[in-house]
Amino acid sequence: MLLLWLLLLLPLLAMLWQQRPSWLILLRHQVAWRVLAWEAAWQQRKLEQSTLHVGQSQQQALTWCLKRAQSPCCLPRGITDMSTFRNQLPLTKTSQVQQEESKEELLPPTSPQYHGEASLQATLLGLVTLNKAYPEVLTPGSSACVTPPSPWPGSVPWLRHALGRVSPLGAKDTRTLLLEALMFPGLRALEARTAVELLDVFVGLEADGKELAEAIASGKLGTPLPSRAAELQEALEQGPRGVMALNLWPEQPQGSYLLPPGVPFIELLPFKEGTQEEATSTLLLTDVQREEEYELVLTDHAGLTRCRLGDVVQVVGAYNQCPVVRFTRRLGQTLSIRGEVTDENTFSAALAQAVGQWPGAKLLDYACVESGILDSCDGSAPHYEVFMELRGLRNLSEENRDKLDHCLQEVSPHYKSLRRRGSVGPVKVHLVGYGSFRVLREALAACPSSSFPPEMPRVLRLSHLAQLLQKRVIS
Q1: Which of 16, 36, 206, 387 is deepest in the core (most CB within 10 A)?
Q2: Is residue 417 located within the same domain as residue 442?
Q3: Domain for residue 431, yes or no?
Q4: Has this prediction a pTM greater than 0.85?
Q5: Final residue belonging to a domain, choices 308, 330, 352
Protein backbone atom coordinates (compact mmCIF):
# COMPACT_ATOMS: atom_id res chain seq x y z
CA MET A 1 0.00 0.00 0.00
CA LEU A 2 2.86 2.37 0.83
CA LEU A 3 4.40 1.71 -2.59
CA LEU A 4 1.09 2.51 -4.31
CA TRP A 5 0.76 5.81 -2.44
CA LEU A 6 4.30 6.79 -3.40
CA LEU A 7 3.62 6.04 -7.06
CA LEU A 8 0.48 8.21 -6.92
CA LEU A 9 2.16 11.08 -5.11
CA LEU A 10 5.29 11.39 -7.25
CA PRO A 11 3.55 12.87 -10.35
CA LEU A 12 1.75 15.38 -8.10
CA LEU A 13 4.98 16.39 -6.43
CA ALA A 14 6.60 16.81 -9.85
CA MET A 15 3.86 19.26 -10.88
CA LEU A 16 4.09 21.24 -7.64
CA TRP A 17 7.86 21.60 -7.65
CA GLN A 18 8.24 23.69 -10.77
CA GLN A 19 10.48 26.18 -8.95
CA ARG A 20 12.44 23.83 -6.76
CA PRO A 21 15.81 24.14 -5.02
CA SER A 22 18.54 21.60 -5.66
CA TRP A 23 18.00 19.76 -2.38
CA LEU A 24 14.42 18.95 -3.38
CA ILE A 25 15.62 17.58 -6.71
CA LEU A 26 18.10 15.33 -4.94
CA LEU A 27 15.48 14.23 -2.42
CA ARG A 28 13.00 13.36 -5.12
CA HIS A 29 15.66 11.44 -7.01
CA GLN A 30 16.61 9.46 -3.90
CA VAL A 31 12.96 8.63 -3.17
CA ALA A 32 12.49 7.51 -6.75
CA TRP A 33 15.47 5.19 -6.55
CA ARG A 34 14.24 3.73 -3.25
CA VAL A 35 10.91 2.92 -4.89
CA LEU A 36 12.70 1.53 -7.93
CA ALA A 37 14.91 -0.63 -5.75
CA TRP A 38 11.94 -2.12 -3.90
CA GLU A 39 10.03 -2.92 -7.07
CA ALA A 40 13.16 -4.12 -8.92
CA ALA A 41 13.95 -6.49 -6.05
CA TRP A 42 10.48 -7.98 -6.40
CA GLN A 43 10.89 -8.29 -10.18
CA GLN A 44 14.31 -9.89 -9.66
CA ARG A 45 12.74 -12.54 -7.42
CA LYS A 46 10.12 -13.21 -10.08
CA LEU A 47 12.84 -13.53 -12.71
CA GLU A 48 14.71 -15.99 -10.51
CA GLN A 49 11.60 -18.12 -10.09
CA SER A 50 10.72 -18.11 -13.79
CA THR A 51 14.26 -18.99 -14.87
CA LEU A 52 14.49 -21.77 -12.29
CA HIS A 53 11.23 -23.35 -13.51
CA VAL A 54 11.57 -22.76 -17.23
CA GLY A 55 9.27 -25.51 -18.43
CA GLN A 56 6.39 -24.25 -16.32
CA SER A 57 7.08 -20.64 -17.27
CA GLN A 58 7.10 -21.38 -20.99
CA GLN A 59 3.84 -23.31 -20.72
CA GLN A 60 2.27 -20.31 -18.99
CA ALA A 61 3.58 -17.98 -21.72
CA LEU A 62 2.13 -20.17 -24.48
CA THR A 63 -1.22 -20.44 -22.69
CA TRP A 64 -1.34 -16.66 -22.34
CA CYS A 65 -0.67 -16.20 -26.10
CA LEU A 66 -3.30 -18.78 -27.09
CA LYS A 67 -5.99 -17.23 -24.90
CA ARG A 68 -5.35 -13.73 -26.25
CA ALA A 69 -4.84 -14.59 -29.91
CA GLN A 70 -5.93 -11.70 -32.13
CA SER A 71 -6.10 -13.60 -35.43
CA PRO A 72 -7.62 -16.91 -36.56
CA CYS A 73 -5.48 -19.94 -35.86
CA CYS A 74 -5.35 -23.33 -37.58
CA LEU A 75 -5.27 -25.10 -34.19
CA PRO A 76 -8.44 -26.76 -32.88
CA ARG A 77 -10.20 -24.88 -30.09
CA GLY A 78 -9.04 -25.57 -26.58
CA ILE A 79 -5.54 -26.72 -27.52
CA THR A 80 -3.00 -25.62 -24.90
CA ASP A 81 -0.58 -28.54 -24.99
CA MET A 82 2.88 -27.38 -26.02
CA SER A 83 3.73 -30.46 -28.12
CA THR A 84 0.45 -30.28 -30.05
CA PHE A 85 0.95 -26.59 -30.69
CA ARG A 86 4.47 -27.10 -32.07
CA ASN A 87 3.46 -30.10 -34.19
CA GLN A 88 0.34 -28.59 -35.77
CA LEU A 89 1.38 -24.99 -36.33
CA PRO A 90 4.02 -24.71 -39.09
CA LEU A 91 7.09 -22.52 -38.96
CA THR A 92 6.92 -19.34 -41.02
CA LYS A 93 9.50 -16.76 -42.02
CA THR A 94 9.26 -13.02 -41.36
CA SER A 95 8.76 -12.26 -45.05
CA GLN A 96 5.78 -14.63 -45.23
CA VAL A 97 4.16 -13.05 -42.19
CA GLN A 98 4.59 -9.54 -43.61
CA GLN A 99 3.10 -10.59 -46.98
CA GLU A 100 0.05 -12.13 -45.30
CA GLU A 101 -0.46 -9.05 -43.14
CA SER A 102 -0.30 -6.75 -46.16
CA LYS A 103 -2.85 -8.89 -48.03
CA GLU A 104 -5.29 -8.96 -45.13
CA GLU A 105 -4.98 -5.18 -44.57
CA LEU A 106 -4.69 -5.54 -40.83
CA LEU A 107 -4.48 -2.64 -38.40
CA PRO A 108 -1.53 -0.27 -38.97
CA PRO A 109 1.73 -1.67 -37.60
CA THR A 110 2.54 -0.53 -34.11
CA SER A 111 5.58 -0.83 -31.92
CA PRO A 112 5.82 -4.45 -30.73
CA GLN A 113 4.99 -4.58 -27.02
CA TYR A 114 5.44 -7.48 -24.69
CA HIS A 115 2.89 -8.30 -22.02
CA GLY A 116 2.76 -5.36 -19.58
CA GLU A 117 4.35 -7.30 -16.72
CA ALA A 118 7.31 -8.37 -18.84
CA SER A 119 7.78 -4.81 -20.10
CA LEU A 120 7.77 -3.47 -16.54
CA GLN A 121 10.27 -6.12 -15.45
CA ALA A 122 12.62 -5.32 -18.34
CA THR A 123 12.39 -1.59 -17.63
CA LEU A 124 13.11 -1.82 -13.91
CA LEU A 125 15.85 -4.45 -14.09
CA GLY A 126 17.42 -2.58 -17.01
CA LEU A 127 17.55 0.68 -15.09
CA VAL A 128 18.98 -0.95 -11.96
CA THR A 129 21.58 -2.87 -13.98
CA LEU A 130 22.61 0.27 -15.84
CA ASN A 131 22.87 2.17 -12.57
CA LYS A 132 25.17 -0.48 -11.08
CA ALA A 133 27.47 -0.59 -14.10
CA TYR A 134 27.46 3.14 -14.93
CA PRO A 135 26.00 5.08 -11.95
CA GLU A 136 26.91 8.46 -13.40
CA VAL A 137 24.47 8.16 -16.32
CA LEU A 138 21.35 8.14 -14.15
CA THR A 139 22.14 10.95 -11.71
CA PRO A 140 19.82 14.01 -11.82
CA GLY A 141 20.21 15.94 -15.04
CA SER A 142 22.45 13.36 -16.72
CA SER A 143 20.08 11.73 -19.23
CA ALA A 144 18.14 13.20 -22.13
CA CYS A 145 15.36 11.97 -24.39
CA VAL A 146 16.20 12.93 -27.98
CA THR A 147 13.29 11.33 -29.83
CA PRO A 148 9.61 11.87 -29.01
CA PRO A 149 8.46 9.77 -27.22
CA SER A 150 10.77 7.48 -25.25
CA PRO A 151 9.91 3.87 -24.34
CA TRP A 152 10.99 3.78 -20.69
CA PRO A 153 8.37 6.15 -19.23
CA GLY A 154 5.73 4.11 -21.08
CA SER A 155 5.91 1.39 -18.42
CA VAL A 156 6.64 3.63 -15.43
CA PRO A 157 5.14 7.09 -16.21
CA TRP A 158 6.56 8.92 -13.18
CA LEU A 159 10.17 8.13 -14.15
CA ARG A 160 10.30 11.03 -16.58
CA HIS A 161 10.00 13.42 -13.63
CA ALA A 162 11.66 11.46 -10.84
CA LEU A 163 14.88 10.68 -12.69
CA GLY A 164 15.38 14.25 -13.85
CA ARG A 165 15.63 13.99 -17.64
CA VAL A 166 17.18 17.21 -18.89
CA SER A 167 15.49 17.63 -22.26
CA PRO A 168 11.95 19.06 -22.35
CA LEU A 169 9.01 16.90 -23.28
CA GLY A 170 6.83 17.55 -26.29
CA ALA A 171 6.61 16.82 -29.98
CA LYS A 172 9.84 18.36 -31.21
CA ASP A 173 12.20 17.25 -33.93
CA THR A 174 15.20 15.13 -32.99
CA ARG A 175 17.77 17.77 -33.92
CA THR A 176 16.21 20.40 -31.63
CA LEU A 177 15.93 17.93 -28.75
CA LEU A 178 19.57 16.95 -29.21
CA LEU A 179 20.74 20.56 -29.33
CA GLU A 180 18.82 21.44 -26.15
CA ALA A 181 20.18 18.36 -24.37
CA LEU A 182 23.79 19.13 -25.32
CA MET A 183 23.56 22.49 -23.55
CA PHE A 184 23.51 20.75 -20.13
CA PRO A 185 27.02 20.20 -18.72
CA GLY A 186 25.94 17.15 -16.70
CA LEU A 187 24.72 15.19 -19.73
CA ARG A 188 25.99 11.58 -19.70
CA ALA A 189 23.42 9.51 -21.60
CA LEU A 190 21.09 9.88 -24.58
CA GLU A 191 17.81 8.00 -24.70
CA ALA A 192 15.75 7.25 -27.81
CA ARG A 193 12.64 5.35 -28.79
CA THR A 194 14.53 2.63 -30.67
CA ALA A 195 18.15 1.56 -31.15
CA VAL A 196 17.93 2.46 -34.84
CA GLU A 197 16.86 6.03 -34.03
CA LEU A 198 19.61 6.30 -31.44
CA LEU A 199 22.13 5.24 -34.08
CA ASP A 200 20.87 8.02 -36.35
CA VAL A 201 21.27 10.50 -33.50
CA PHE A 202 24.90 9.50 -32.94
CA VAL A 203 25.65 9.56 -36.66
CA GLY A 204 24.19 13.04 -36.86
CA LEU A 205 26.15 14.11 -33.80
CA GLU A 206 29.40 13.00 -35.41
CA ALA A 207 28.60 14.59 -38.76
CA ASP A 208 27.17 17.90 -37.46
CA GLY A 209 29.11 18.17 -34.19
CA LYS A 210 30.96 21.33 -35.20
CA GLU A 211 27.76 23.04 -36.30
CA LEU A 212 25.97 22.05 -33.08
CA ALA A 213 28.85 23.37 -30.98
CA GLU A 214 28.75 26.69 -32.86
CA ALA A 215 24.98 26.94 -32.23
CA ILE A 216 25.52 26.44 -28.50
CA ALA A 217 28.38 28.96 -28.42
CA SER A 218 26.31 31.61 -30.23
CA GLY A 219 23.22 31.08 -28.08
CA LYS A 220 20.90 29.93 -30.86
CA LEU A 221 18.42 28.62 -28.28
CA GLY A 222 19.02 31.25 -25.61
CA THR A 223 22.09 32.23 -23.59
CA PRO A 224 25.48 31.82 -25.38
CA LEU A 225 27.51 29.04 -23.78
CA PRO A 226 31.03 29.17 -25.26
CA SER A 227 32.60 27.05 -22.50
CA ARG A 228 30.01 24.30 -22.95
CA ALA A 229 30.57 24.41 -26.72
CA ALA A 230 34.30 23.93 -26.15
CA GLU A 231 33.62 20.91 -23.92
CA LEU A 232 31.39 19.40 -26.57
CA GLN A 233 33.96 19.94 -29.30
CA GLU A 234 36.67 18.34 -27.17
CA ALA A 235 34.47 15.31 -26.48
CA LEU A 236 33.65 14.89 -30.17
CA GLU A 237 37.33 14.97 -31.09
CA GLN A 238 37.93 12.02 -28.74
CA GLY A 239 35.45 9.93 -30.70
CA PRO A 240 32.44 7.92 -29.52
CA ARG A 241 32.72 5.86 -26.31
CA GLY A 242 30.01 4.11 -24.29
CA VAL A 243 27.28 1.51 -24.30
CA MET A 244 25.03 1.03 -27.35
CA ALA A 245 22.93 -1.85 -25.98
CA LEU A 246 21.54 -2.70 -22.58
CA ASN A 247 21.51 -6.17 -21.06
CA LEU A 248 22.02 -7.72 -17.64
CA TRP A 249 25.80 -7.60 -18.13
CA PRO A 250 26.50 -4.24 -19.85
CA GLU A 251 30.07 -4.13 -18.53
CA GLN A 252 31.09 -7.13 -20.66
CA PRO A 253 32.91 -6.28 -23.91
CA GLN A 254 30.65 -8.45 -26.09
CA GLY A 255 26.90 -8.21 -25.72
CA SER A 256 25.23 -11.27 -24.18
CA TYR A 257 21.51 -11.53 -23.57
CA LEU A 258 19.23 -13.63 -21.42
CA LEU A 259 16.37 -15.36 -23.26
CA PRO A 260 13.52 -15.16 -20.71
CA PRO A 261 10.79 -17.82 -20.56
CA GLY A 262 7.86 -15.39 -20.72
CA VAL A 263 5.97 -13.73 -23.57
CA PRO A 264 6.76 -13.98 -26.45
CA PHE A 265 7.01 -17.76 -26.47
CA ILE A 266 10.56 -18.64 -27.60
CA GLU A 267 11.79 -21.68 -29.54
CA LEU A 268 15.22 -22.25 -31.06
CA LEU A 269 15.88 -23.88 -34.42
CA PRO A 270 19.28 -25.65 -34.73
CA PHE A 271 21.55 -23.95 -37.25
CA LYS A 272 24.56 -25.50 -39.00
CA GLU A 273 26.65 -23.28 -41.22
CA GLY A 274 27.32 -24.62 -44.70
CA THR A 275 24.61 -27.29 -44.64
CA GLN A 276 21.90 -27.38 -47.30
CA GLU A 277 19.29 -29.12 -45.17
CA GLU A 278 17.30 -27.06 -42.72
CA ALA A 279 16.23 -28.38 -39.33
CA THR A 280 12.47 -28.70 -38.97
CA SER A 281 12.24 -29.50 -35.26
CA THR A 282 12.68 -26.71 -32.74
CA LEU A 283 14.02 -26.89 -29.21
CA LEU A 284 12.77 -25.26 -26.04
CA LEU A 285 14.96 -23.11 -23.78
CA THR A 286 15.99 -26.03 -21.58
CA ASP A 287 17.08 -28.23 -24.52
CA VAL A 288 19.82 -26.11 -26.10
CA GLN A 289 23.54 -26.85 -25.90
CA ARG A 290 26.34 -24.44 -25.05
CA GLU A 291 28.45 -23.16 -27.99
CA GLU A 292 25.81 -24.32 -30.49
CA GLU A 293 24.02 -21.89 -32.83
CA TYR A 294 20.26 -21.53 -33.24
CA GLU A 295 17.78 -19.41 -35.16
CA LEU A 296 15.23 -17.62 -32.99
CA VAL A 297 11.54 -18.53 -33.40
CA LEU A 298 8.98 -16.32 -31.65
CA THR A 299 5.24 -16.61 -31.07
CA ASP A 300 3.10 -13.86 -29.58
CA HIS A 301 -0.62 -13.26 -29.23
CA ALA A 302 -0.90 -10.70 -32.03
CA GLY A 303 -0.46 -13.06 -34.99
CA LEU A 304 -0.03 -16.44 -33.28
CA THR A 305 2.57 -17.48 -35.84
CA ARG A 306 5.74 -19.43 -35.12
CA CYS A 307 7.88 -16.84 -36.83
CA ARG A 308 11.50 -17.51 -37.80
CA LEU A 309 13.20 -14.17 -37.26
CA GLY A 310 16.35 -14.96 -39.25
CA ASP A 311 18.52 -13.97 -36.26
CA VAL A 312 21.12 -16.59 -35.33
CA VAL A 313 22.39 -16.74 -31.75
CA GLN A 314 25.11 -18.76 -30.05
CA VAL A 315 24.56 -20.10 -26.55
CA VAL A 316 27.43 -18.77 -24.41
CA GLY A 317 26.18 -19.53 -20.90
CA ALA A 318 23.19 -20.04 -18.65
CA TYR A 319 21.22 -18.05 -16.09
CA ASN A 320 19.64 -20.69 -13.86
CA GLN A 321 17.93 -22.90 -16.49
CA CYS A 322 17.69 -20.23 -19.21
CA PRO A 323 20.26 -19.78 -21.98
CA VAL A 324 22.43 -16.69 -22.29
CA VAL A 325 23.15 -15.99 -25.94
CA ARG A 326 25.17 -13.78 -28.24
CA PHE A 327 23.85 -12.68 -31.63
CA THR A 328 26.14 -13.89 -34.41
CA ARG A 329 24.47 -13.29 -37.79
CA ARG A 330 21.30 -12.66 -39.75
CA LEU A 331 20.09 -15.12 -42.34
CA GLY A 332 18.98 -13.78 -45.70
CA GLN A 333 21.71 -11.12 -45.73
CA THR A 334 23.88 -13.00 -48.24
CA LEU A 335 25.32 -12.12 -51.63
CA SER A 336 25.26 -14.84 -54.25
CA ILE A 337 25.60 -14.18 -57.98
CA ARG A 338 27.43 -17.41 -58.87
CA GLY A 339 26.39 -19.66 -56.00
CA GLU A 340 29.23 -18.48 -53.77
CA VAL A 341 27.05 -17.35 -50.78
CA THR A 342 28.98 -14.49 -49.16
CA ASP A 343 27.24 -13.98 -45.81
CA GLU A 344 26.97 -10.79 -43.78
CA ASN A 345 29.77 -11.70 -41.38
CA THR A 346 32.22 -12.50 -44.17
CA PHE A 347 31.52 -9.31 -46.07
CA SER A 348 31.59 -7.18 -42.91
CA ALA A 349 35.00 -8.61 -41.96
CA ALA A 350 36.39 -7.78 -45.41
CA LEU A 351 34.91 -4.29 -45.33
CA ALA A 352 36.32 -3.57 -41.86
CA GLN A 353 39.74 -4.72 -43.03
CA ALA A 354 39.57 -2.47 -46.10
CA VAL A 355 38.34 0.61 -44.22
CA GLY A 356 41.22 0.13 -41.80
CA GLN A 357 43.56 0.77 -44.74
CA TRP A 358 41.87 4.05 -45.72
CA PRO A 359 43.59 6.88 -43.76
CA GLY A 360 41.18 8.88 -41.64
CA ALA A 361 38.09 6.93 -42.66
CA LYS A 362 35.44 5.65 -40.27
CA LEU A 363 32.57 3.50 -41.50
CA LEU A 364 29.13 4.76 -40.42
CA ASP A 365 26.84 2.44 -42.41
CA TYR A 366 26.71 0.38 -45.58
CA ALA A 367 24.51 -1.75 -47.84
CA CYS A 368 25.28 -4.15 -50.68
CA VAL A 369 23.54 -4.82 -53.98
CA GLU A 370 24.02 -7.54 -56.56
CA SER A 371 24.69 -5.89 -59.93
CA GLY A 372 21.63 -7.50 -61.52
CA ILE A 373 19.33 -5.53 -59.18
CA LEU A 374 20.63 -2.26 -60.61
CA ASP A 375 21.06 -3.70 -64.10
CA SER A 376 24.58 -2.26 -64.09
CA CYS A 377 26.67 -5.04 -65.61
CA ASP A 378 27.10 -3.24 -68.96
CA GLY A 379 28.52 -6.37 -70.54
CA SER A 380 30.92 -7.00 -67.66
CA ALA A 381 30.81 -9.96 -65.30
CA PRO A 382 28.25 -9.90 -62.48
CA HIS A 383 29.61 -8.20 -59.38
CA TYR A 384 28.79 -6.73 -56.00
CA GLU A 385 28.14 -3.03 -55.49
CA VAL A 386 28.52 -1.51 -52.04
CA PHE A 387 27.18 1.86 -50.90
CA MET A 388 28.80 3.24 -47.77
CA GLU A 389 28.64 6.31 -45.59
CA LEU A 390 32.00 7.37 -44.20
CA ARG A 391 33.26 9.97 -41.77
CA GLY A 392 36.63 11.62 -42.31
CA LEU A 393 36.86 10.84 -46.02
CA ARG A 394 34.95 12.34 -48.95
CA ASN A 395 36.71 10.68 -51.85
CA LEU A 396 38.42 7.39 -52.59
CA SER A 397 41.23 6.68 -55.01
CA GLU A 398 40.89 3.70 -57.31
CA GLU A 399 43.69 2.02 -55.40
CA ASN A 400 41.73 2.29 -52.16
CA ARG A 401 38.53 1.11 -53.82
CA ASP A 402 40.32 -2.00 -55.05
CA LYS A 403 41.40 -2.87 -51.53
CA LEU A 404 37.89 -4.03 -50.65
CA ASP A 405 37.93 -6.60 -53.44
CA HIS A 406 41.35 -7.87 -52.34
CA CYS A 407 40.20 -8.14 -48.72
CA LEU A 408 37.10 -10.04 -49.76
CA GLN A 409 39.25 -12.53 -51.68
CA GLU A 410 41.36 -13.05 -48.56
CA VAL A 411 38.39 -13.94 -46.34
CA SER A 412 36.41 -15.93 -48.94
CA PRO A 413 38.28 -18.65 -50.88
CA HIS A 414 35.20 -19.36 -53.02
CA TYR A 415 34.92 -15.70 -54.04
CA LYS A 416 38.66 -15.64 -54.78
CA SER A 417 38.31 -18.65 -57.06
CA LEU A 418 35.45 -17.02 -58.99
CA ARG A 419 37.42 -13.79 -59.35
CA ARG A 420 40.45 -15.61 -60.75
CA ARG A 421 38.28 -17.38 -63.32
CA GLY A 422 36.60 -14.13 -64.28
CA SER A 423 33.14 -15.44 -63.40
CA VAL A 424 32.66 -12.56 -60.98
CA GLY A 425 33.83 -8.99 -61.52
CA PRO A 426 35.49 -6.74 -58.90
CA VAL A 427 33.45 -5.03 -56.21
CA LYS A 428 32.34 -1.51 -57.09
CA VAL A 429 32.53 0.95 -54.19
CA HIS A 430 30.31 4.06 -53.91
CA LEU A 431 30.35 6.75 -51.23
CA VAL A 432 26.98 8.30 -50.38
CA GLY A 433 26.25 11.61 -48.67
CA TYR A 434 25.49 12.13 -45.00
CA GLY A 435 21.98 11.04 -44.03
CA SER A 436 21.53 8.60 -46.90
CA PHE A 437 20.88 5.63 -44.65
CA ARG A 438 18.47 7.60 -42.50
CA VAL A 439 16.51 8.27 -45.71
CA LEU A 440 16.74 4.55 -46.53
CA ARG A 441 15.30 3.61 -43.12
CA GLU A 442 12.47 6.09 -43.64
CA ALA A 443 11.72 4.46 -47.00
CA LEU A 444 11.73 1.03 -45.35
CA ALA A 445 9.39 2.22 -42.60
CA ALA A 446 6.98 3.56 -45.23
CA CYS A 447 6.49 0.08 -46.72
CA PRO A 448 3.03 -1.26 -45.70
CA SER A 449 4.44 -4.63 -44.63
CA SER A 450 7.45 -3.24 -42.78
CA SER A 451 8.06 -4.11 -39.14
CA PHE A 452 8.66 -1.45 -36.50
CA PRO A 453 11.36 -0.48 -36.15
CA PRO A 454 12.24 -1.39 -39.74
CA GLU A 455 14.96 -4.00 -40.10
CA MET A 456 18.05 -2.54 -41.77
CA PRO A 457 19.10 -4.95 -44.53
CA ARG A 458 22.73 -5.24 -45.54
CA VAL A 459 21.73 -6.70 -48.91
CA LEU A 460 19.09 -4.76 -50.84
CA ARG A 461 16.79 -6.92 -52.97
CA LEU A 462 14.41 -4.20 -54.23
CA SER A 463 15.56 -1.99 -57.06
CA HIS A 464 13.80 1.18 -55.82
CA LEU A 465 15.71 0.99 -52.51
CA ALA A 466 19.01 0.43 -54.30
CA GLN A 467 18.26 3.33 -56.65
CA LEU A 468 17.54 5.55 -53.64
CA LEU A 469 21.16 5.10 -52.52
CA GLN A 470 22.45 5.30 -56.09
CA LYS A 471 20.96 8.79 -56.43
CA ARG A 472 22.86 9.95 -53.33
CA VAL A 473 26.33 8.85 -54.47
CA ILE A 474 28.93 11.59 -54.04
CA SER A 475 32.04 9.66 -55.09
Answers
A1: 387
A2: yes
A3: yes
A4: no
A5: 330
